[in-house]
Specification:
Elements (H helix, E strand, L loop, with lengths): L1 E9 L7 H13 L3 H19 L5 E10 L2 E5 L2 E5 L2 E10 L4 E8 L4 E6 L8 H4 L2 H10 L3 E6 L14 H26 L6 E5 L1 H12 L6 E5 L15 H4 L3 H4 L6 H7 L3 E9 L3 H13 L5 E10 L2 H11 L1
Parallel strand pairs: 7-8, 7-9, 9-10, 10-11, 11-12
Antiparallel strand pairs: 1-2, 2-5, 3-4, 5-6, 6-8
Amino acid sequence: MLERFVVCDVPHRCARSSPGRAFFWEELRTAKDAKDSQRARRKAWEESRLAISGQHPVRYSGCGETLQATSLRLGSDTLSTSSMNREYHKGYSQELHRDMEALVFGHAGTPVLVFPTSMGKFFEYEDRGMIGVLANKIERGEIQVFCPDGVDTESWYNKGVHPRVRVMRHLQYERYILHEFLPFMRWKNQNWQLGVTGCSFGGYHAMNFALKHPDVVTHCVSMSGAFDIKQFLDGYYDDDCYFNNPPDYLPNISDDWFLSRYRQMKIVLGSADWDICLDANIKFSAILNGKAIPHWLDVWNDNSKHDWPLWLRMAGKYF
């Protein structure tokens, strides 16, 4: 039942941290010594701090509804979804220069940002049953789930353009999440924590975003993630590719600003013995260990494959 129509001016109440953080990543490439790196970090942090106090309107429109009691059958289990807040939002992105859609589930709790799978859509998490699995926790106000749309078909999976264009589109998407969607989330939910998650290629998005912005993310849950994006570049590689390829840049990070925050972050790498991304998770776990970054590598030894039945059970366990 449609209960309300919402048109809101969304203030950037959380970190509009991307100008500072983007500056840091740019300057880090050209820093010649530790002094340059520290100066870049200080300037990035100061710009981030100042930006938090600003009010930058982002306009969203949408509607909210209450989901009435339904049931979802998962294997032998029937999950009941009681009355739950569900909101659909659509707004024009200045970063992507097009409309972007999103779904929000719940009314309170730790905010969880969900990146869709390869070329997935904002409604995927709901359609595939993940919201049903989490329904009780959402209804109790333990977590609030935010599902923005993705642009994989315009970035990494767009074989019709040069790889450089694919990378640039991904960077625009990252800025959309930072400049526009995260402030919207903070307007909806003022909880200081932020979890990011995704399955398969969504796991890449979650991990890469968390590692690049540890001042924003407190929890990262990757389910069957694959973290190396070279397969999408047709042999092309530049600095922007490097700084969006975690297996390459993470081993070379020595700045304590990042490492100290990584070591405070709650990181989960979920995989399974028949998961096609098992090797990628084992190798990435080794990189994290090499940097003394605490994390949980959870390998399901039950012949589970790289698919939604596995991720549904993971969601029930990790959240």
